[in-house]
């Protein structure tokens, strides 16, 4: 099961109870899943289509409970959908206009042009905004698994995008539009906004799952960064040690180390033997051990005397 279908399954278990929220859900589902069939002389029929039988049941119950409409239910095997079953709910002609007026998609006086309006409460009440976003997600939404990326989107239309973005903005969620082939999409991309969107819709279990994945992902990123940093330091240390060892070796072959002060000879020999050692480790190998800054100082003197100004010692 994908993260998207987990979220949808969770959302389908939330039943809107208040009449205002039921109308809000119906509004979003009508905009996502319904088409209007014109029958001439201003007659109109609303028909919902969905591949998801649980969503078809949801629409059926909402029409029945909120609008006292009993739609006609048929199933169609759809060639285009690879033989999957399509549920079709058709609202009788006598009820279709009443439904569209209630949803503010047409005005009382006319049955001609169709407006993509929404019930006022879908904008003004938080419970109804949540219901509208939830139903929009059920009807045409998807969310990427948080293991891959943070992205939640709704299939929309030019007329609807503005409404969706305004409703999201009232919950301080930033929605943006994009076009994909001939579809318009409203999407949410920031991790915090995806979480807020799940919270708004009421998908609390999915939200917890996402937060857990986020925490692990952040911890993993931090560990990776720390490891990369350690490796970079180690590399620097190794290359500084190796270049010191090379310089000391070539000096000793040409001049021998015997003429240098005792403590520099000792350090030089240790470095040739241990090019990979850190300055701290070298300090511990001395007959009279000294700390890192003492070794650093001594190494600079040694490098200066053998004629190689070495500025890399600081890094090791
Ligand atoms: Zn409400």
Please specify the SSE layout and strand pairing.
Blueprint: H1 3-12, H2 19-33, E1 34-40, E2 43-50, H3 53-67, E3 72-78, E4 84-90, H4 93-102, H5 120-124, H6 126-140, E5 141-143, E6 152-156, H7 158-170, E7 176-180, E8 183-188, H8 191-201, H9 204-255, H10 262-273, H11 279-285, H12 292-305
Helix pairs in contact: 2-3, 2-6, 8-9, 9-10, 10-12, 11-12
Bound molecules: zinc ion.
The site of zinc ion has 9 residues, from helix 2 and helix 6.
Give a short summary of the structure.
The protein has helices at 3-12, 19-33, 53-67, 93-102, 120-124, 126-140, 158-170, 191-201, 204-255, 262-273, 279-285, 292-305, and strands at 34-40, 43-50, 72-78, 84-90, 141-143, 152-156, 176-180, 183-188. With 316 residues, the chain is of the alpha+beta class. It has two domains: 3-202, Endonuclease I-creI, CATH 3.10.28; 237-315, no CATH class.
Number of helices: 12
Portion in beta strands: 15-25%
Task: State the low-pLDDT regions, or none.
Answer: 309-316
CA radius of gyration is 35 Å
Question: Main sheet?
Answer: 4 strands, antiparallel
The side-by-side strand order for the widest beta sheet comes to 1-2-4-3
- Outline, from the CA principal axes? rod-shaped
The CATH topology assignment of the largest domain is Endonuclease I-creI
Distance between the termini: 51 Å
Q: Judging by the overall fold, what is the CATH architecture of the largest domain?
A: Roll
SSE order: HHEEHEEHHHEEHEEHHHHH
What ligands can be seen in this structure?
Answer: zinc ion
What is the number of strand segments?
Answer: 8
Oligomer: single chain
What is the count of structural domains?
A: 2
Tell me the name of the CATH homologous superfamily of the largest domain. Homing endonucleases
Text of the CATH class of the largest domain: Alpha Beta
The proportion of residues forming helix, as a percent range, comes to 55-70%
Query: Averaged pLDDT, please?
Result: 88
- Provide the structure class: alpha+beta
């Amino acid at each position: 099961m994908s993260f998207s279908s987990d979220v949808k399954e969770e959302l389908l278990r939330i039943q809107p109870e208040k009449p205002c929220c039921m109308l809000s859900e119906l509004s979003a589902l009508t905009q996502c899943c319904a088409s209007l069939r014109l029958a001439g002389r201003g007659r109109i029929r609303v028909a919902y289509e969905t591949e998801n039988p649980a969503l078809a049941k949801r629409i059926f119950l909402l029409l029945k409970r909120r609008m006292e409409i009993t739609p006609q239910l048929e199933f169609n095997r759809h060639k285009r959908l690879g033989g999957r079953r399509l549920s079709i709910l058709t609202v009788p002609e006598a009820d279709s206009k009443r439904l569209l007026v209630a949803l503010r998609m047409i005005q009382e006086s006319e049955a001609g042009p169709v407006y993509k309006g929404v019930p006022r409460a879908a904008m003004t009440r938080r419970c109804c905004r949540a219901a509208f976003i939830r139903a929009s997600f059920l009807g045409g939404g998807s969310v990427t698994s948080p293991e891959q990326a943070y992205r939640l989107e709704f299939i929309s239309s030019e007329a609807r995008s503005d409404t969706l973005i305004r409703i999201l903005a009232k919950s301080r969620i930033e929605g943006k539009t994009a076009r994909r082939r001939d579809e318009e999409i409203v999407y949410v991309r920031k991790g915090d906004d995806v979480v807020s969107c799940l919270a708004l819709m009421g998908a609390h279990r999915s939200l917890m799952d996402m937060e857990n994945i986020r925490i692990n992902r952040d911890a993993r990123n931090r560990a990776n960064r720390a490891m990369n940093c350690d490796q970079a330091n180690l590399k620097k240390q190794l290359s500084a040690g190796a270049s010191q060892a090379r310089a000391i070796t070539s000096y000793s072959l040409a001049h021998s180390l015997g003429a240098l002060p005792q403590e520099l000879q000792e350090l030089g020999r240790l470095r040739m033997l241990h090019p990979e050692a850190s300055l701290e480790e070298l300090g511990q190998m001395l007959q009279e051990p000294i700390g890192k800054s003492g070794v650093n100082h001594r190494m600079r003197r040694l490098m200066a005397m053998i004629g190689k100004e070495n500025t890399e010692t600081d890094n090791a």
